[in-house]
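Section 5: illustrative case.
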């Protein structure tokens, strides 16, 4: 059996999320069906992390094993030929047996994209969150810095989260503006269910001037979900990708980012 890692880009608007569900289509289901056709045998995949309904991915990573020999170009081109237009395999990389898409990660990166404008965008429909009221990204960035480090993030955890505990480590949070786009970049070792979306919903309160910059720290310390802001809409969230040891040879998601002009236009930088 040969083992491979996949880099997958997708628009999650039409799916119930990454994980297979009985009631609606998922990214995992579409990918496994396409892989199985190319391999001519059943193939299952394991991802770096699950994304919820409506959430997108710049470079999700998953691994699979197969007994069927195919060159890397055949995997990429063949699988993409069987995938819908809103899912694409960006790369296929041979990996050793001890590689695991989830457990080999060193960290994960998410971006939340806000289109901060009085009028909604037709072209970015279901790809950004729209906030009509002016936001102060500098206040949002200052408020977010209290999140850096290892903390109990109970205040920013969905009620149905199944994690055993709420302690996570955030290594960096950056809030930046690119014209009418505000980008919230969050990096950490792992994330709770809806954690990034609740963090952003809380930061929006600060950006609107409804809460002080110090309010975020008090909410974090309280460990009380009812004190934080609402859960932001899913279609503004992008799983940018996991981080792995360079020894695995998996392309880093940063290598495929567009240049500044294009990236700011589509809200990805």
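Designed sequence:
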């Amino acid at each position: 059996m040969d083992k491979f890692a996949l880099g997958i880009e997708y628009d999650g608007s039409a799916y119930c999320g990454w994980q297979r569900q009985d009631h609606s289509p998922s990214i995992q289901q579409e990918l496994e069906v396409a892989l199985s056709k190319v391999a001519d045998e059943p193939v299952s995949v394991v991802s770096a992390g699950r994304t919820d309904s409506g959430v997108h991915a710049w470079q999700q990573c998953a691994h699979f094993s197969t007994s069927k020999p195919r060159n890397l170009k055949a995997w990429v081109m063949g699988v993409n030929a069987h995938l819908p237009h809103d899912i694409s395999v960006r790369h296929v990389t041979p990996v050793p047996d001890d590689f695991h898409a989830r457990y080999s990660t060193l960290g994960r990166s998410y971006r939340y994209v806000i289109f901060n404008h009085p009028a909604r965008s037709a072209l970015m429909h279901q790809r950004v969150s729209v906030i009509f009221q002016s936001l102060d990204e500098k206040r949002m960035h200052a408020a977010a810095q209290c999140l850096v480090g290892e903390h109990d993030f109970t205040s920013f955890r969905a009620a149905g989260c199944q994690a055993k505990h709420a302690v996570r480590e955030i290594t960096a949070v950056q809030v930046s503006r690119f014209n009418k786009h505000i980008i919230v970049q969050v990096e950490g070792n792992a994330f709770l269910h809806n954690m990034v979306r609740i963090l952003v919903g809380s930061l929006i309160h600060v950006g609107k001037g409804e809460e002080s910059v110090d309010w975020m720290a008090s909410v974090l310390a309280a460990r009380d979900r009812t004190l934080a802001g609402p859960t932001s809409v899913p279609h503004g969230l992008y799983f940018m990708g996991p981080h792995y040891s360079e020894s695995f040879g998996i392309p880093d998601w940063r290598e495929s980012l567009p240049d500044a002009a294009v990236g700011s236009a589509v809200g990805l930088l």
